From TrEMBL:
Compartments where found: Cell membrane
Family matches, as PANTHER family: GUANINE_HYPOXANTHINE PERMEASE PBUG (PTHR43337:SF11), XANTHINE/URACIL PERMEASE C887.17-RELATED (PTHR43337)
Molecular function GO terms recorded: purine nucleobase transmembrane transporter activity
Protein name: Putative MFS transporter, AGZA family, xanthine/uracil permease
A Gene Ontology cellular-component term: plasma membrane
Native organism: Weissella bombi
Transmembrane segments: 32-56, 62-81, 114-132, 144-168, 174-200, 207-226, 256-278, 299-319, 331-352, 359-378, 398-416, 428-447
Family, per entry: Belongs to the nucleobase:cation symporter-2 (NCS2) (TC 2.A.40) family. Azg-like subfamily.
Entry superkingdom: Bacteria
Membrane topology: Multi-pass membrane protein
Protein keywords: Cell membrane, Membrane, Transmembrane, Transmembrane helix, Transport
Lineage: Bacteria, Bacillati, Bacillota, Bacilli, Lactobacillales
Length: 450
């Protein structure tokens, strides 16, 4: 029985009865339309995820298929188990950490790194069963949660600026503006403006539409070669399927457990914060709490485990679900509709050749802006909170490593809160995390140099 059901409302069919649609003042038509809107808003991940993981040496076609399948599993589980209008797919942030911090930054082969993702997924599922995940989330101060979201957003935007050629390496100043004489750089600039204008006009699916428009401009101008096909069977999963499992012996390396820890932490905070925010928007919070959050977290955990087996980075609840919620989506039918559309999208893998780095870069930049919005929630007037939050935010892009940014925040928070006479506000979990991150920094920074 759904917590929001009205016993006076009688369902009008199977879908209505299963998802309690009428009881939540919605209709089947509205829920399906909301699901379509959510899909259009987040479909960019089908092309962005292969682009990012491809930089780590993974097969883009296999990643495309794994991305779609992980999204299908996540959306269907969320709809059936939790009956929420919230879509799940491989998340931005986790894939950036995997590609740029672990594989390219630490020099760990992607096969070995995928073993870390698989182990993190197994632990994640166990922690969700034991409800430890909810306990840890509640123990982390809200300001650090906001800082982590913003820092990952700025890091993602930085990756986009690099990929689009707007920022390049420089020996004297570390970074500098890219050359505006490179035609493909202008493709990125145009893409940013297209998406930005659509976003300003509140057009649903602005990012996805912007990617399409930018790709078409690239095709028309000859900057992007025409694809041989538009529709084909989904690429094989063989290059990535089960690699995380077959590479498990690599977990004997202590460095890999630091990687597992960061995947756990990022996944811990990402989905929980998004779930609560979207539940508030949908009006399904009850007495300040989110009903069935355990089921929602379980849907996320199981989809993360499935994605790790197929060959993609951890899944997360998508903030783009707000687009579907904004037009009336309130039940799991919205999420399942989104999952069905991801299933049909498997036929369009040839478009991967069209969606180049310069085409996906604008999407990364805009998503970074959206994630950075959480900066406004941080208590900047309280220095003991402001400094850990600031170090978390700037630490990610400046070290080119998400884990370092998180570590900086968690290391300074308990110390400054104690210095400010607020030691009682620091719970035992945060002191434990202080020790964990000292070990993490040692493993990530000292061991690779020995």
């Amino acid at each position: 029985m759904n917590e929001f059901d009205d016993p006076k409302v009688r369902p009008t069919g199977f879908l209505d009865s299963f998802f309690h649609i009428s009881a939540q003042n919605s209709t089947v038509k509205r829920e399906i339309l909301a699901g379509v809107t959510t899909f259009v808003s987040m479909a960019y991940i089908l092309f962005v995820n292969p682009s990012i993981l491809g930089a780590a040496g993974m097969n883009k076609g296999a990643v495309f298929t794994a991305t779609a399948l992980a999204a299908i599993v996540g959306c269907v589980l969320m709809g059936v188990l939790a009956n929420y209008p919230i879509a799940i797919a491989p998340g931005l942030g986790d894939n950036a950490f995997f590609a740029f911090s672990v594989v390219l930054g630490l020099g760990i082969p992607w096969q070995k790194a995928m073993a870390g993702v698989f182990v993190a997924s197994v632990l994640f599922t166990i922690l969700s069963f034991l409800k430890v995940r909810e306990l840890v989330i509640d123990a982390i101060p809200q300001d650090l949660k906001y800082a982590m979201a913003a820092g990952i957003g700025i890091f993602i935007a930085f990756v986009g600026l690099q990929g689009g050629g707007l920022i390049v390496a420089d020996k004297s100043s570390l970074v500098a503006i890219g050359s505006l004489t490179v035609p493909t750089t202008w493709l990125t600039i145009v893409g940013v403006f297209v998406i930005a204008i659509l976003m300003a006009k509140r057009v649903p699916g602005s990012i996805f539409i912007g990617i399409l428009v930018t790709a078409i401009i690239g095709l028309v101008t000859g900057l992007i070669p025409m694809p041989e096909h538009i529709i084909s069977l989904a690429p094989s999963l063989k290059p990535t399927f089960g690699v995380g499992i077959t590479s498990l012996p690599s977990m004997l390396d202590p460095q890999m457990w630091a990687v597992v820890l960061v995947f756990l932490l990022v996944a811990f905070f990402d989905t929980a914060g998004t779930l609560i925010g979207l539940a508030q928007q949908a009006g399904i919070m009850k007495n300040g709490k989110m009903p069935r959050i355990g089921r929602a977290l379980m849907a996320d955990s199981l989809s993360m485990l499935g994605g790790a087996v197929m060959g993609t980075t951890p899944t997360a609840a998508y903030v783009e679900s707000s687009a579907g919620i904004s037009i009336g989506g309130k039940t799991g039918l919205t999420a399942i509709t989104t999952g069905v559309l991801f299933m049909f999208s498997l036929l369009f893998s040839p478009l991967l050749a069209v969606v180049t780095t310069q085409v996906t870069a604008p999407a990364l930049i805009v998503v970074g802006v959206m994630m950075a919005a959480s900066l406004r929630e941080i208590h900047w007037d309280e220095f003991e909170l402001a400094l850990p939050a600031f170090l978390t935010v700037v630490g990610m892009p400046l070290t080119y490593n998400i884990s370092y940014g998180i570590a900086f925040g968690f290391l300074t928070y308990p110390i400054l809160m104690t210095a400010a006479g607020r030691r009682k506000e620091v719970n035992s979990v945060m002191w434990a995390m202080l020790i964990v991150f000292i070990v993490l920094l040692y493993v990530l920074n000292v061991l690779p140099k020995q």
